[in-house]
Amino acid sequence: MRYFVLAIVLLLISCEDGEAPIAIEDPDAQDNEYIEPAIEQFKEPSDLKISSKKARNFNKASEALVIMGQEWAEQMSNADNEEKLKMAASYEKAQDDLIRKFGIQGKEEFKWIHTKALPESINRDVFARAGVWINR
């Protein structure tokens, strides 16, 4: 890919005014090739204080996970054994994808918020304003 970009740049530089650059196709490119975007891995912060936006996103993700779990269980109860195996195998990825839709870096950050940030007294008001019910 680097050589392809270099070739395009050289062609553009070498063209005189009025000349159109020659289009070169990248032989490695596929027309229907899907490249999954890089997923940023969660790195545990040193500070346990959480923002109100992150607390709201956590609350929304929590609610969505409950709904997804209920729907998943209902679908699994109506599926045959082979389909149940497929659904079970894809459940964790589906959870991670759902959590990421709410601005949280996957199950790792969700777990960190739940186990470390949520119990901290400095975050109690932030979570309460976000609608997170804390039983402590």
Describe the structure.
This protein has 136 residues and is mainly alpha-helical. The protein has a domain at 50-129. The protein is 57% helix and 0% strand. It contains 5 helices and no strands. Helix 2 (52-77) packs antiparallel against helix 3. The longest helix has 26 residues, at 52-77. The radius of gyration is 24 Å and the shape is elongated. The model is unreliable at 1-21 (pLDDT under 50).
What's the arrangement of secondary structure elements?
Blueprint: H1 2-14, H2 52-77, H3 81-100, H4 106-117, H5 124-129
Helix pairs in contact: 2-3
Compose a concise summary of this entry.
This protein is mostly helical and 136 residues long. The chain is built from five helices and no strands.
- Tell me the Rg in angstroms: 24 Å
Overall 3D geometry? Answer: elongated
Report the portion of residues in β strands: under 5%
Structural class per helix/strand content? mainly alpha
Number of helices: 5
> Which residues sit in consecutive blocks of at least 5 with pLDDT less than 50?
1-21
Main beta sheet, described?
none
Mean pLDDT across every amino acid position: 79
Percentage of residues assigned to helices: 55-70%
